[in-house]
Amino acid sequence: MVDTILTNALLPSGQLVDVAITDGVIAAVTHATPASREVEAGAVPTAATPTVSATVPPAESATTPPDAPAPTIHDLQGDLLLCAPAEPHAHIDKAFTADVIANSTGDLAGAISGWQDHYFSAAYDQQEDFHDTVRRASKAVELAISNGITSIRSHANVGEANRSVTAVKALAEVRHRYRDKLDLQIVALIAPSVVGRQGAYGRQQLKLALEAGADIVGGAPMLEEDPNQAITVLLDAATDAGTAVDLHTDETLDAEMLTLLELCRQVKERAFPHLVAASHCVSLGVQSASEQARISREVAEAGITVITLPQTNLFLQARGQTTLAPRGLTAIDALLEAGVTVAGGGDNLQDPFNLVGRGDALETASLLVAAGHQSPEAAYDLVSKCARAAMGLPAAGVEVGMQTDLLALDVSSVRGATAGAVTRRRTFKDGRLIAELHTETALY
Q1: Spatial contact of 434 and 428, defined as CB atoms under 8 Å apart
Q2: 4-83+397-438 belongs to which CATH class?
Q3: Which CATH class is domain 87-390?
Q4: Measured distance CA(148)–CA(146) in Å, rounded
Q5: Residue 99 in contact with residue 33, Cβ under 8 Å?
Q6: Is the pTM for the entire model greater than 0.70?
Q7: Could you report the per-residue pLDDT of 304-321, keeping only the tens digit for each?
Q8: In whole angstroms, how far apart are CA 310 and each of 13, 34, 54, 174, 379?
Q9: What is the tens place of the pLDDT at every residue in 316-364?
């Protein structure tokens, strides 16, 4: 039984359609009916031309009980209807700390140092930290939802001094609060070492994090003394827990740091059965064209997804390089040509690792156009369909059988959407309208 109908929805092809939704799945997509076009023009449809008639499949309408509730109707008024964006890589446990935690050097090392200095201080209070993280992460989630995002994968620092798994517990609370509006995946980002004797604490903290609500094993092997062994430990932990893996990988312009190849080797050798994502992969972008192609083929064979994070890496990388400064992005084109699933994410949000950010996937898409030289259509796919694939989520979009995590925008093209010329957004989660954002301008 159809429970929701979106009328007068504009597709990227230019077609105006009505969309029927049943239990959060697209049941039918048909040309907009004359009645729904009248609604768009401001007229009231008559009983002889019901708005929903053309959107209900014949078999469905024949079996619908006469006392069934009427479907909810949303007139999109010709707004562009797209697969809703997903955020495949965030750090909402750190969000909105830029004004209280400094990055003295502006680069990755400065951000890590500033963050650690703040949380290793004698004044640290775990309970206060929990409530503050919940507050800031909730603000980030609400901002994302208002901008059209219906799914977030967020890393949460684990094992830092007295913090232990506080950030994971805080994000688990946020996930519970917004469970009807957002899919929130939590990655346990191990801050201390996980290798050897000195890594015993980190390995214990990872286990505690998974017990506290983390879904995915994370880490940053490139920061370890033995990156290869760190990859082994993290893959072992994920195998034991039956979880996916998402590693901060080669977040550096140093061409010699290329742990991505080792990750490919280990994933293939053990036939790792769960999703694997390599986030950042900055050093791949400074390899020669032939090396980029070769390594990309290895990534494709291993089935690893690469998540590129333009805003944070544009901010952190190439500090001090005043001539021919690289952009700090991965080799997007080489990866795509090899058949790798590439997703685009926003990463940090107004914290020491990225002082700016609007929690808006359209901003990420715009940067992928400007700095990554992707077409607007390809850029939007990277932050929506590809991001969902990287997160292991079912496909969403305006096609029969797809999930109805959708975004309606008052623009006429995907290019217009990525350009940011949007004054109205409506976010749908499982076919339900969960947020509406309007921007108004008054000229005097």
Answers
A1: yes
A2: mainly beta
A3: alpha beta
A4: 6
A5: no
A6: yes
A7: 999 999 999 999 999 988
A8: 28, 44, 43, 26, 11
A9: 999 988 888 888 999 999 999 999 999 999 999 999 999 999 999 999 9
